Amino acid sequence: MSAAGQGVRVGVARERAPGERRVALTPETCKKLVAAGAEVRIEAGAGVGAGMTDEAYRQAGGQVVADAAAALNDADVVLCVQAPSAAALTALREGAAVVGLLAPQADAERGAAITTRKLQAFPLERLPRTTRAQAMDVLSSQAGMAGYKAVLIAAQLAPRFFPMLTTAAGTIRPSKVLIVGAGVAGLQAVATAKRLGAQVEGFDVRPETREQIESLGGKFLDLGVSAAGEGGYARQLTEEERAEQQRRLGEHLKGVDVVVCTAAVPGRPAPKIISAAMVAGMKPGSVIVDLAAETGGNCELTQPGETIESGGVVVAGPLNLASSGAVHASEMYARNVFNFASLLLKDGQLQFDWDDELLARTVWPERAVG
User: Fold this and answer.
1) What's the fold here for domain 9-126+326-361?
2) Is 215 part of the annotated catalytic residue set?
3) Given 58, 160, 233, 356, the catalytic residue
């Protein structure tokens, strides 16, 4: 905790993960934190990948420091996109709060460092999906950018136009695009493909998504299998249901030009929806972009981080797509993070209200509410 009379010290370092261009603090949210009484330190160059200069942070009241150690080591609150390394976490002050996409259970050393230093880790992927938490929901804000970019990648890879065109050489039929999964990423993908002029369908085993897909101009693909579950996520299908879904989907894919897969459940491997046999049945020149590649992919042939060809069908497994739209992705992410961090700041001091469900259910290891 900061010494008496001092404001909360907030630290932000440059992201070290390969290819990561986002930043957890923008000049906009830096200014808000300073106005709330915080002392903000940010490593030089932290915002460059997202088009945010050191001077912009200085004008917002932040202190630009030379390296990560100067930004983080005596911070009360550390804001990040992806988790700092175990070594960086070990160097933090004992009891500091760390807010970001931390995935502590995915790395034993990282989890041990959090426990050893008694850090108050808030992995935002654990945030409850409640109405109150919507303004802090980084998974949704980043999924929107990822869904948008996935369709642009598909359009680039497809050897055809998306829209219908009438030309002197004849009429070009619109591409048939199927979006698998109708979460935030999937719905953004439906909207983007529609704007590009494609004939768009959306598929999800949750029947309540029909209205959302249709509201964006897509057609709901009904395969006769429902997996409505709790909390907005799908339940596990029975073997019989899954087999029937696979059969009907395989038949439908024979007439589809582009598939964008977005079906994912946080903390679990992505469900395998498109088999190798289905891909083999698709037309040569078809394209699959698998947004779920980071958790194993919805397509059996997906290779994370690679674009391959199988029987004339291109299968792309892009990673960290939100980072490719770093400017707007960072703006949304930083606002989400600021809204969550505001729960920790009371009268200019760092305080943890463990009766607050959002804090109690997001902190790792989890605490009991009340």
Assistant:
1) Rossmann fold (3.40.50)
2) no
3) 233
Contacts with 274 (C-beta within 8 Å, 6 or more apart), sequence order: 180, 249, 253, 259, 261, 288, 298, 299, 300
Domains 9-126+326-361 and 143-319 are alike in CATH topology: yes
pLDDT band at residue 166 under the 50/70/90 scheme: very high
Alpha carbons 358 and 16: distance in angstroms, whole number: 28
Question: Per-residue pLDDT tens for 96-145?
Answer: 999 999 999 889 999 999 999 999 999 999 999 899 999 999 999 999 99
Domain ranges of the chain: 9-126+326-361, 143-319
> Is the bond into 365 cis (omega within 30 degrees of 0)?
yes
Catalytic pick from 76, 137, 204, 257?
137
Active site residue 129: yes
Contact 68, 46 (CB under 8 A): no
Rounded Cα distance between 192 and 232, Å, is 23
Homologous superfamily of 143-319: NAD(P)-binding Rossmann-like Domain (3.40.50.720)
Model pTM score: 0.91
CB 97 within 8 A of CB 72: no
Q: Is residue 303 predicted with pLDDT exceeding 60?
A: yes
Buried b (16+ CB within 10 A) or exposed e, 145-158: bbbbbbbbbbbebb
- Whether 322 and 101 have beta carbons less than 8 Å apart is answered as no
* Catalytic residue check, 248: no
Instruction: Report the Cα 43 to chain-centroid distance in Å.
Output: 24
Taking the C-alpha atoms of residue 71 and residue 97, their distance in angstroms, rounded to an integer, is: 14
Q: What is the pLDDT of residue 3?
A: 44
Known catalytic membership, residue 247: no
Give the span between the Cα atoms of 341 and 350, in whole angstroms. 10
**Annotation marks residue 148 as catalytic:** no
- How are strands ordered across the β-sheet holding 9-12? 63-65, 39-43, 9-12, 77-82, 97-101, 120-123
- Both tokens assigned to 2: 């900061």
Catalytic residue among 140, 175, 188, 212: 140
